[in-house]
Write a structure and sequence with these properties.
globular, 208 residues, mainly alpha, disordered N terminus, binds heme C, 4% strand, two-stranded antiparallel sheet, single chain
Length: 208
């Protein structure tokens, strides 16, 4: 009887080790050229470019994990004690759009864009100490449709191509002292091309 139970246990463990560890992994993208490894490494290189933009201060200052947006290249906590509020657009009396208009206000140094508000917490790319999440971690949240606003690859590409808050990052206006804010490290065209390459490669993510 005992050995029968041990036998069942062993089968159970084998089943877990065979199938348990594979959930959540991306399958190797199929390739008609028969070079899945090469395609995957090109896809991963494209992802690294996408990641370098997403984690630039112009983007990640709105993709925070805490109760506040950040400002500047040093990503300090937003002035005036501005808080996220229940929907990411502030609280009554201190809403984002009270100060952030539809366009940059370069005389006062307030950046602006359509419907300015924080990304929801499910789209955070930082930890709660304001540290930037690793490339595998950001890749895993952005490809998770339960967290990314139910977007597939085509929808992510469209977002990166057309979303006004993304376009703002390449036209971020002037700080209060009159100096220009820095844009992300590559052009918007290069960012869209890298996103397309990554999506076409099956959205591969680097290993944790
Ligand atoms: C009382 C006015 C005011 C309110 C309300 C306000 N902001 Fe700001 N915000 C500013 C000013 C001024 C700046 C520019 C500061 C600077 O460049 O040093 C700024 C800058 C920012 C930046 C930095 C841009 C960058 O990349 O450096 C972000 C992001 C931001 N605000 C998000 C928000 C969000 C989200 C809300 C609502 C939850 C909000 N703000 C509410 C005045 C405000
Ligand atoms: C002013 C705040 C703000 C800025 C700046 C901003 N975002 Fe966002 N982002 C948002 C909000 C709000 C959403 C949620 C919109 C929705 O789901 O419709 C979002 C959603 C996204 C998404 C959808 C999927 C997901 O899981 O996050 C992507 C991708 C994205 N942003 C990329 C960027 C990139 C890249 C930049 C910089 C080039 C950027 N964002 C700058 C506020 C911002």
């Amino acid at each position: 009887m005992l050995s029968f139970k041990i036998g069942l246990l062993t089968i159970g463990l084998i089943t877990i080790s065979l199938f348990g560890g594979t959930s959540g992994r991306q399958p190797e993208p199929a390739s008609s050229s028969g070079e899945p490894r090469q395609r995957s490494s090109e896809g991963l290189a494209a992802w690294q470019q996408v990641y370098s933009v997403m984690t630039h201060p112009r983007c990640i200052n709105c993709h925070t994990a805490g109760s506040y947006p950040q400002q500047g290249d040093d990503r300090h906590r937003h002035l005036f004690n501005v808080v996220r509020g229940p929907a990411g657009n502030g609280v009554p009396g201190l809403q984002c759009v009270t100060c952030h208009q539809g366009a940059n206000a370069d005389t006062t140094g307030v950046p602006g864009g359509h419907d300015w508000h924080l990304a929801p917490l499910s789209m955070k790319w930082q930890d709660t100490s304001d540290g930037i999440l690793s490339s595998p971690a950001v890749c895993s949240v952005i490809t998770d449709r339960s967290k990314n606003g139910n977007r597939d690859g085509a929808a992510l590409l469209k977002h990166n191509e057309e979303e006004p808050l993304i376009l703002w990052a390449w036209n971020p206006g002037r700080r209060a002292d009159g100096s220009l804010r820095t844009p992300p490290p590559i052009t918007h065209d290069e960012f869209v091309a890298a996103t397309r390459k990554w999506v076409e490669a099956g959205m591969p993510c680097p290993q944790q």
